[in-house]
Amino acid sequence: MSENAPPVVELVNVSKTYGRRGGGVRAVRGVSLTVAPGEVYGFLGPNGAGKSTTIRMMLGLIAPSGGEVRLFGEDLRRNPSVLRRVGSLVDGGAFYPFLSGRRNLEVVAKTHGGDGARIDELLDQVGLAKDAKRKVKGYSTGMRQRLGVAAALLNDPDIVILDEPVNGLDVAGIQEMRALIRGLAADRGKSVFLSSHLLHEVQQVCDRVAIVSKGEVVRESGIAELLRQDAGLRVEAAPLDIAEAALTARWKVERSGDALLVDATKDEAPEVARRLIGAGANLFALAAEQRNLEDVFLSITQPEAPDA
Ligand SMILES: Nc1ncnc2c1ncn2[C@@H]1O[C@H](COP(=O)(O)OP(=O)(O)O)[C@@H](O)[C@H]1O
Ligand SMILES: [Mg+2]
User: I need a surface site. Which of 55, 109, 150, 284 has the fewest CB within 10 A?
Assistant: First the structure.
């Protein structure tokens, strides 16, 4: 992919009101975001935040009330054929329960013009090769989701859009899905856009994230950047009283079990160490606190967190 390739997805001030204007539900309110080629992009927010509505607009399944959806630089409304480069999994995918996984993919390939020759390769890629002949009604939720991903990949898309791909999966299923998603980006150079209400998932799998709340993107950022924000230093020292006194002279200090949480930046770590040792404390550990995406998420979406 060339350096100046257009964004894979570009939403410009996209909004959606269900029902009558005024009395309707404003599900999405002026969302703008950009997905770069090869990126795994997370769309994170609590239930009802507008994730599925946004995804449906990205796929041309519903029309935006305002704004513009661009895929690979093309306006989706003017050039819907650009959807040939897009694969998707929404609502967990729909399959015939009485047909095998393989047969189901053949049906999808026939009805949606995918490449049936790739079916075996895809079944292998999503880890279903040995279950390909079993009827889908005997599949676990995880297997169905992975079959859904295989179906989404049939037309060899450049981006795969997945709405809550780990919903309903057990721990093993989540791990398989995670590996599959990372593999799509790392080994196959595809872009992935996925929605989730699970912070942990997004944190593990995505390069960049938009946090959405009540139909609005409240933050768009690289995961690393989001987590790098100073969360203070964690100090283990003894005697704790002496250590605390030495540090409160300069920083806000909080006790956390046997440790101290110091509201200092990483750049100030040497100064923290000098003060502790100067005061006669023994320093056992000094580390920058890793900020959890959950903290960031809660600090942003706190007011509606209870029903998330
Ligand atoms: N077809 C619809 N008709 C009316 N309201 C809808 C429809 N689909 C979703 N909504 C409402 O839009 C809001 C956003 O829903 P949705 O996009 O499904 O959020 P999410 O996927 O983040 O859970 C919610 O208030 C939901 O009740
Ligand atoms: Mg949804």
Answer: 284
